[in-house]
Amino acid sequence: MTHSSLIGDLIDLNSALKSDRLSDSDEKKQRDRAIGQALQQQRNNPAKQVRGWLDQVRISAWKRDGVQAVQLYHVLCVILVFVGLATGWGLARAVLYYTGNAPINIVNALGLLVLPQIILLLFWLLATIPNSIPLLGSLQSALRFLNPGRLTRHLTRLFPAHSRQSLSLVWDAEYATVLAPATRWLFSFWSQLFSFCFNIGVLLAAFYMIFFSDLAFAWSTTLNIDSTTFHHMLSALSWPWHTLFPDAVPSLELVEISRYYRLEEGSLGNASTASELAVQLGQWWPFLVTAIISYGLIPRLLTLLISWFRFRHHLAHALPRLPGSPELLARMNSPLISTSAPQPESVAEFDAGSGYGPSKSGSYALKCAVIDWSGTGVNAESIAKQLQTMGISSQAFLMAGGTRTTDQDNATIVSLCKLKPEGVAVIVKSWEPPLLEFLDFIHSIREQCNRQQAIIILLWGGRDGVDRRDRETWQLTLRQLKDPDLHIEAMGPVQ
Amino acid sequence: MTTPLFAIVGHPNKGKSSIVSTLAQDESVTISPIPGTTVDNRYYPMVVDGEMLYALVDTPGFQRARAALEWMQKQPGSSVDRANIVRMFVEEHHDDPRFAAECSLLTPILDGAGILYVIDGSRPFGEEYEAEMEILRWTGQPSLALINMIGDSDYSEEWNNALGQYFRIVRIFDAMTADFDRRVQLLLAFGQIREEWRVSLEKAVRILEEEQQRRRKLSAGRIAETISHMITYTCQRRLGEDVAGSEVRNSLQQAYQQELTSMEQQCRSDVEQIYNHKHLERHEPLVQLLDEDLFATQTWLLFGLTQQQLITTGALGGAATGGVIDLAVGGASLFLGAGIGAMIGGVSAWVTTDRIADIKILGLPLGGKQLSIGPMRNINFPYVVLGRALYHHRMIEDRTHAHRGPLELKQQPAWLQTVDTDRRKRLEKIFVKLRRQETLNPDLVDALAEQIQNLMQLSVAPQTIPPRSRVSEKAPLPPGEG
Question: Which fold has domain A366-491?
Fold first, then answer.
């Protein structure tokens, strides 16, 4: 698993999860659970699981941009390799420039090829250690900000917008909470890649000049440093390799004979013959090359590898944390639970048109027979009083519904017809919806008695009064009868 | 072992569909005030990875129960034949539109479904219920009566007495306000009506509880992520030479507020999705910026360096230069060179930033002023956002799928203040780090999510749910008696 394919998967996963947002959640659950069961052996590795999901899932309108982003990433790495090699080669050629007139100042070479690397290495270490130390945080943020690897992202502007935008996900502020550590290590990886190649370039140039020309080194400084002190400093610098490569540690003798003064066209201490001197001064190169390898190449290789591994680690860590990933993993790893109906519901359609006569609110001037439906239990006297307020005088009180049989209901209708009332008032419990058996009863009255007589449904609300919603239910249901002489009235106020 | 099957039966408009919607967590169930809306049986199986653990059947309400019972009573036979008589009724009236509802609702019962008889306990008992209860008893199937509290009045005692004559178990259940625990308790109660169904139902409950934990975890993660974003969010705008600062301030503040609102609303929608509430309308006051002056003006320089970064860079450069001198004198200066260099570098950068910003190269300035808003420094802000998010989560977690109205998030309980000191300290530690813009560590978001998940377990339900959960159990009555 290389981290470039991780980048591709990260970008593909992000675009897949974005495209998947609009998919039906039930379909997603089924699809992802099936994939999750197929990837059951990777359950303890969420990064592997989401990558496995990525291989298997098919989402409409999902555009896989990962490949282009990975290509761009590779191109950027190749650019950094070439720029690093060229810079290293160029700087080494400039520092080790030697025409034979004056030796190369080893102080100068160390100052340009080794010392900055040590300082930058310290900065790198400072920027990467955990920032639990107070006041270190702002210094670290400045060092991270100054990381030249950051500049690499500006190179993406030279490339087509499509692949640039895909790769920019890695440093997009919107994803900082998830990807910031990976971003930091990507910039570190890029800067260390450049530095490593820079050191390769330096060494290639150095070896080229050592093999194909003669180099003479000396040391020169205005500071009041004698050969012994300078030898001590060099010995300290050579400490890492003094046992492995003792020949690469300059001797005091070499230091003493290599001191160089430019006055009077340059002079060297203890000068012997020119050829002997050239051989002696050339002995500095193992020290210089080992110093570059020890303080440049090897540390940069280490920092490069650390950055590579950390970047890979954080990328893999970010995959299951991308927006939508936790939900995806939950869908994959939890049982597919379905509690809803698999088939759509068939619902009765009701005619919304008005079919019954509107409430007359006290304008009835009728002698009515009164039927108590389903045993409302309302006192006959109080019913009579209520009816009087509506202009209805009660002619007789009859019972129907409830615990009575349908035969008894039919007998009630026969009695009712014999009375020949001007109208029929049926008292019902407003909270009980009108059932079909009630509609049958009304229909039978209409069929068996006077077809034009008014039938008034009196809603009784009990101790709570008539609820507005209950009245609406009655109105909606009775409307289905399309009977213009059917009226609905509430007994008492409507709540 | 047969799969538990439960037929939800009863009078029309007594909340059968609401109960099904709540238990099946299905918003597609039609809940209508018009009686007879449910015309066919509809099955709601709980299937877990292809295995059916139980099924609910939503049935039409009784429409002509008296006539049906009269037909049954006219048939010859003793009380042991009653189940067969009911079967005969269904067979004989299968194509009779008059008894379509009765045939539909009795079919699953005759096929072995347990009976869940639903009544409205907020309305008085009536004699018209007796015929349908008698028919159900004639089927001889195990049964449970559910007193659904639709309205505010309470006639549950009256109903308890009536239902107790027909049903061994009577349970009060409010389909609209029943929280997860009550729903689970009800499922377990279904297991009491037939012993062989208990195992399946217990398994179903265990799976639902695990699912609930997963939902909490996902929600906590989403809320933690949103809070982290909201606390650390900043909005910048560069100030042109001829643009009035007040104009930019207003538009920037508006943009900032909008972005915070948008983050919060997205989080709300995501949490609702996690709980399967797909089409929820929500009414909630917008998050306030707590009247704090959030603005800061700062200088930016080429490559986007801020003044602070430039000062640090200058100090570093100065320290490096001074360090060379320290090195040259073999450390005899006691690193005074690096110290003085850092000071000079830092002060120079501080003094010259504005001047550098004004320099123009080829007509382009090297820098300028920018107005920024955020991150939110008010120490109460994360608690306000967290309180709102937890309140919303609680409302969503407790909201049943029978609820069809908008979600009103008006009153916010102050229970977060009652959280113990240790938890508050842990939260504050995370918020402090977030305020310092240390979101670059995703583990911090995970730590916050963990704290939020703990708070979800602790949070007390808002005082909108009356404590209604009573069960009465009696010895089973033989069919036809009582």
Answer: Rossmann fold (3.40.50)
